[in-house]
Amino acid sequence: MEKNNRGPRFNRQYRYGHDGWQSKYSMHTRGKKATTTIVSEFICVFKHDGVFYIYAMDSPSPAVIPHVTIKKHGNLHDNDSRFVEEVIKVVSSLDGSSSMRLKLFTKFPTRYSIILCNPPRMTLDDMNQILMMNAKITSLKVDLETSELKIESYKHNEETQRKRKRSIAFDDMDIPSEYDLSMVDKKDRKHIEGIMRNVLGMTTMEFSSEIKPSASYYDLELKDIEALNVEIITEIVNRYRAFITDTIFDYPQKSFSMKIRRNDTPITQIRQNIVPRKRLKLR
Fold first, then answer.
1. In what order do the strands lie in the sheet with 35-39?
2. 3-class SS at 44?
3. How far apart, in Å, are the Cα atoms of 57 and each of 90, 150, 200, 270?
4. 256 in Cβ contact with 222 (< 8 Å)
5. Contact 155/261 with Cβ under 8 angstroms?
6. CA gap 44, 29 in Å, rounded
7. Is residue 58 classed exposed, middle or buried when 0-12, 13-18 and 19+ CB atoms within 10 A define those classes?
8. DSSP 155-200
9. For the segment 24-53, what is each residue's pLDDT rounded down to a tens digit?
10. How far is residue 130's CA from residue 142's CA, in Å, rounded to a whole number?
11. Where exactly are the structural domains of the chain?
12. Of 17, 239, 247, 274, which cross-links 124 as Cys (Cβ 3.0–4.6 Å)?
């Protein structure tokens, strides 16, 4: 049984029978009515007090793609509902998604928000998959402290002629003189300091950081950090794509990390430069 202090309690049973994998769902709402809005082999979502709650079970086989169908929602166009379905499929296919929960806010006339609570460990590539799925996304933000991934998008019937505010411009910030870089080799100082200046410039909030050296890489880990703009992270990775090899949003550990190549380590792969999304008109 999983218990959520902010919402209803949810029971699940999962077993393998003669007909294959079988699952059974039930929900306790302390006397309030709960409406099942999504049911699939590995995913179940309930609506309770105006908020959608998703409970996604880890698939017993990585080859199984959950089938998700959202019943028609009065405030969402079919194309918007389909996008929500696809986001659930993509994130639920990742290991560790069994405690994930969905909140869907649709009351505004021109836009809606999807908030994934307790998502699994995700890479930057996972995040960019979501960005590429919908040209009307206005922002994709990560909050590691509250364990939330927030997606904001214009609705299908909203005209896309207005310019979307792209908040990817940011300033480099000087590294504090007391910051310890003694573990960084002299030949790696230039790109490590450049990455650190970019990281400091992407937020005005304080956070803690640590650089862990290894034989081939440096692991830069950030903690106690709140909202991260995924498009700014993408811009930093594009600037240093010959050095940054992995970028991880570790929700369970509430940390963000980059693996940075040492200069004396042979290059085996360079990340493709991620081209900014083009504006597409949906019909």
1. 35-39, 43-48, 51-56
2. strand
3. 13, 21, 37, 34
4. yes
5. no
6. 15
7. middle
8. -TTS-S-SPP---------PPPTT---TTS-GGGHHHHHHHHHHHH
9. 444 444 554 444 444 344 445 555 554 555
10. 13
11. 9-154, 186-261
12. 247
Q: If you ran DSSP here, which 8-state letter would residue 47 be given?
A: E
d(CA 156, CA 73): 13
Q: Please state, in angstroms and rounded to a whole number, the distance separating the CA atoms of residues 176 and 197.
A: 10
CB 260 within 8 A of CB 191: yes
Which amino acid does the sequence have at 55? Y
Q: How many CA atoms lie within 13 A of 155 on its CB side?
A: 17
Q: Indicate the burial class of 127 (C-beta count within 10 angstroms; 0-12, 13-18, 19 or more).
A: buried
∠ at Cα 247 (123, 126), nearest 5°? 20
SS3 readout for 95-152: CCCCCCEEEEECCCCCEEEEEEECCCCEEHHHHHHHHHHCCCEEEEEEECCCCEEEEE
What pTM, to 2 d.p., does this model score? Answer: 0.73
Give, to the nearest 10 degrees, the angle between helix 189-201 and helix 230-239. 160
pLDDT digits (tens, 9 = 90+) for 156-211: 877 654 445 454 666 788 898 889 999 999 999 999 999 999 998 887 778 899 99
Q: What is the 3-state secondary structure (H, E, C) of 53-82?
A: EEEECCCCCCCCCCCCCCCCCCCCCHHHHH
Q: How far apart are CA 237 and CA 259, in angstroms?
A: 11
The residue type at 227: A
Amino acid letter, residue 4: N
CA of residue 39 relative to chain centroid, distance: 23
CA-CA-CA-CA torsion sign (117, 121, 263, 183): positive
CA distances from 200 to 77, 137, 167, 170, 188 (A): 40, 25, 16, 10, 18
